[in-house]
Amino acid sequence: MMVGLDPLELRLRNYAEVHPQSGLPWSSNALRECYAIGRSASGWSNRNPEIGSMRDGHWKIGYGLAAISWSWFQVRCQARATITRDGQADVRSAQATRAPAPEP
């Protein structure tokens, strides 16, 4: 704890109720709830906050905390649906991802 404050408490103190640049409310935001679930499920309050203080045999173990905000934009999209003469539906659309392909 470089600043002498629990990492989760630091994030809760800096929690943004609105978008920092636009001042608009988030369209969705369950980050506080995620923090609470993570705190409970991980046993966060039972951990020793001193760096290097927890061990499992010869292994040093510890707890980490991370969160991310993903900025995105909406591009024009379309889909085509066709009903064939025999009554089947054929729906065509496409997607793309920015994530790199997994290595073989």
Describe this structure in words.
With 104 residues, the chain is α+β, with helices and mostly antiparallel strands. The chain has helices at 7-13, 31-42, and strands at residues 54-56, 59-61, 80-83, 89-92. The strands form 2 sheets. It has a two-stranded antiparallel sheet with strand order 1-2. It has a two-stranded antiparallel sheet with strand order 3-4. The protein is elongated, with a radius of gyration of 23 Å.
Secondary structure layout plus pairing:
Blueprint: H1 7-13, H2 31-42, E1 54-56, E2 59-61, E3 80-83, E4 89-92
Antiparallel strand pairs: 1-2, 3-4
Q: Keywords for this structure?
A:
4 strands, 104 residues, alpha+beta, 2 helices
Helix content: 10-25%
Question: What spatial form do the alpha-carbon principal axes imply?
Answer: elongated
The largest sheet, given as strand count, sense and whether it forms a barrel, is: 2 strands, antiparallel
Poorly predicted spans: none
Task: Write a brief caption for the model.
The chain is of the alpha+beta class and about 100 residues long. The chain has helices at about 5-15, 30-40; strands spanning about 55, 60, 80-85, 90.
